[in-house]
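Following the same procedure, sequence and fold were stored together, as reproduced here:

>
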Amino acid sequence: MNLKISECVFEKVPSLCVGVLVLEDVNNKADMGAFFDSEYAKIEAEKVAKFDGVELAEYPLIRAWRDIYKGFGEKKARSSIEALIRRVVGGKGLYRISALVDIYNLASLRFELPCGGEDLDTMPSVLELTVANGTEKFLSLGATEYESPNTGEIIYKSGDIVVCRNFNYRESDITKLTENTKRAIVVFEDVTGGDLEGAMEWFVKHVTEMTGARVVRRGVLSK
């Protein structure tokens, strides 16, 4: 499986770097409750202290992503990392989904980088990060009716399937990770010079230990 980034995306977001990991032999039913609780407690304490008294909308990372979203006409959507930080500092915690999702959410929070993952066996072709023309079809998580992204919106797609809208803001029900996922692609997005390699290394260490996954491809894409 390859990930391709269209040149038109870099025209809109020239600073974008995307870390890519392709996994096989994943045990997404793995029990990682004790690990999650321990890691989340440390991350939560760090973020609550860090953001005490901080206006999140003006935090440079969050401001950068908001500006990017506004740049392609999105006024309401927020980056996935803003959503995670708001949940943590607001005392709402994280949803437990599956081993893969739980690990990448921890990595996303720890390193403050948006992250997402998809089931490779549900994708008809190469995964592409591109700019929507507005005619593509998207089935949101839990939805029964398709919708279309906005023209100019930055999306992930595979063939005719929109995999995620607004970068990693909204995920498709078709390509979501499930407990039966064996092959997956995970991406980290960076626009502010964050520790992308550190996030990938942390994720790889724990996903291989917790789920037995093998990393078969790894790289960073930039302009």
In short: The two ends are 20 Å apart (CA to CA). The chain has one domain: 3-222. The CA atoms of residues 207 and 213 lie 6 Å apart.
